TrEMBL record:
Its main location: membrane. Residues 1-11 have a biased composition (Basic and acidic residues). InterPro entries: PC_trans (IPR000374), PC_Trfase_euk (IPR016720). This is Phosphatidate cytidylyltransferase. Its cofactor is Mg(2+). The chain crosses the membrane at residues 53-72, 78-97, 109-130, 150-173, 185-204, 210-235, 247-266, 316-338. Keywords: Lipid biosynthesis, Lipid metabolism, Membrane, Nucleotidyltransferase, Phospholipid biosynthesis, Phospholipid metabolism, Transferase, Transmembrane, Transmembrane helix. PROSITE patterns: CDS.
Amino acid sequence: MNMRLMEKELQSPRSPSTARARHRRKSTEAFPDVAKLNESDLLINDQSKYRSMWIRTYSSVWMLLGFIGVVYLGHLYLWGMIVVIQILMTSELFNLLRRAHEDKRLPGFRLLNWHFFFTAMLWVYGRILGQQIMHAVTPDKFFYKLATSFMKYQMVICYFLYITGFMWFILTLKKKMYKYQFSQYAWTHMILIVVFTQSSFTAANIFEGIIWFLLPASLIAINDVAAYFFGFFFGKTPLIKLSPKKTWEGFIGASVTTVISAFLLANVLGRHQWLTCPRRDLSTSWLECDPGPIFKPETFVLPSELPWKEVSILPVQWHALCLGLFASVIAPFGGFFASGFKRAFKIKDFGGSIPGHGGFTDRMDCQMVMAVFAYIYHQSFVIPHCYPVEVLLEQILGSLSFEEQEVLLTKLKEVIEGRQLQH
């Protein structure tokens, strides 16, 4: 009798071990183990791939048209677009690990996270756009004095805003909820360091010249699209366990396509002043400038056996090859990191804002890595180390009040007059 009861209990679907096994199968359903993948799991044999492709293409076209419109409007609107995307990404990530039951017991706790976010925004953009802020206001006006004071005391202001948030967090700690609150505190800071700080370099690239934002961003998009289509039609060999549907065929095909596209696209973008001139203020007026030597074409004579006698190449195209190589080989690891994160928390996408693509975070994972590299590369290998007089004057005057500028002018006159007397 006891033996029969034990057999029924073991066969019962309510057995804890059976329930746990069912839960495990269900939780990993969206992420099959690559070791068990066969060709039927890849895009090349995915039965629903055509419907997915059309949805993805439709969304991509609308995003591309909107992006072109913002580029046409100029630097300030591009920066505004980046800020909006950062807010949407942060909202997706803040909501990712939230639990409604705990949030109900912590009124104002979500507001605290946004307090840290906007404090970081004030810190980062205040330092990146300090020069543009100073040029956006007129001397001898109230706003000029306000901007000067802000730039002077920005570090203090941001520090005390952060300390206010820190004290706010300590005062809101509740018994039996410490673990949840501290995990959210750590998660907020990780978002600010890994996501917000990296993506903020995009703004610095925009004001150095739209091309230093547009070219890297375009290369990531080209690489993503090329990897999708090469994997779609030719993919057979899985690339990495974190992304089961990514293939070596897609990775290699996208890499070659991206490097070639970088060289050709730089030639097209580098011939327009609207894209190459740096923006020194926050206006939307037309730009005219000396494009610099890297945007002036150089002519190379080709061997007589070729049908073309000579070819015109912009020096920026050689820099574009480096950007293209990084975008095709290194930047995809930002996507692999995001895939690993999603697998760890058993989610398919960070959000559902963009049909066929997921959320904004899903689209910006590689862009963040690329933005930092583009900024570092531009500062290290593109900007000349010998600054022209105009740039030095802008840096000096941007940190001085109007009265200090008058004192500086008087001192310079005295120095120059003294040297003239000596000669």
